Amino acid sequence: MSRSTTRFDTKKVNSELVTLTYGALVAQMIKDLDNTDDVSKQIERLGYNMGIRLIEDFLAKTGSGRCLDLKETADKIQTAFKMYLGVQPNVTNWSSSGDEFSFMLDSNPLTELVELPDDLKGLKYCNIICGAIRGALEMVQLDVQSWIVQDQLKGDQSTEVRVKFIRRLEDAMPAGED
Amino acid sequence: MVIFGIYIVSKSGGLIFNYDNNVPKIEKEKKFSYPLDIKLRVENKKIVVEFGERDGIHVGHVLYSINGIGVTGQQMDDGQDALEFLNKKENYPVVIKFGRPKMTTNEKIFLASMFYPLFAIASQLSPEPKSSGIEVLEADTFRLNCFQTLTGVKIMIVSDPSQTGVEILLKRLYEIYADYALKNPFYSLEMPIRCELFDNNLKSLLEQIEKVGITNI
Prior knowledge:
Chain A is α+β, with helices and mostly antiparallel strands. Chain A has helices spanning 2-7, 15-32, 36-62, 70-85, 127-139, and strands spanning 90-92, 100-105, 142-150, 159-168.
């Protein structure tokens, strides 16, 4: 695998390019839709659609196998954060039943240059991450819910992305694995 | 390196990509006089050799052309019925070309969707629980390697039985699929892959293998 990672070395781009492009996208959406809730929802859908494609890239590049435990899943999403956003979030706040956890992002490349105006306080700017997590996990037959708990844009210390395991999609399991 | 073909089957069992790679062309042209000493038969709307194997013409080969006029199905390209033409003594001597039947796209789609339940059955038949489906299927003239991704996409390579290192190629194909099909915003999931970049990268990968060998990619 080591050889393929060097050859496939992800083309590094300046994270500012991502920040600016994403910012432009959200700004345009706010212009197009007047309801902030709708924008949040659309961003989440956008992330979902990215996630269902991105998972394939992640699996092809890391060669990782199926998770049989949520802790393993959390670890893998952590590596995915590193791969796609260049940040390494902490996995914390496990629920006692072990079906819920959070990613703590101390710095978030998406919001680095962003300040939310007062009339957009309801906007879930980072919802794209939640969508991507949900979409990607759905493709590997894990149904999860994901939402933003804390947001640096709203004055919190760090950004917290919560993930809750709902169920395994047994009927969607590919043949030979069910 | 002998790779005959590459197939990608979507999660729902549809053939979404197929590429035929250096399949040797087998064609034989020969002059015949009346009466024709090869028994022909109509099968699946094609005219095939039923009996009388000789001079490189084998049972199962289909009629390609008569006197240089192509034959599609049972009809010659100038509108005559091929079998009727061959039954008339005045048309002889004739030059007939036979060859290995080519698979049509429809037949490929059909075969790909047949593999799907076979794969599932294999995992059910297994004496051990939690078995995978068919990973390698071997015959005396080819070997089929199948790799199923966690998301249920199957990538298959039909190669020479002696070909080694096909697993590496499968992994590389998966990477190319993830890059050039899935990251193309105008490609919709589960649909046939018609992406030029994907084709180009796949071809250059195969060329590279041809040159430096499968283990060096």
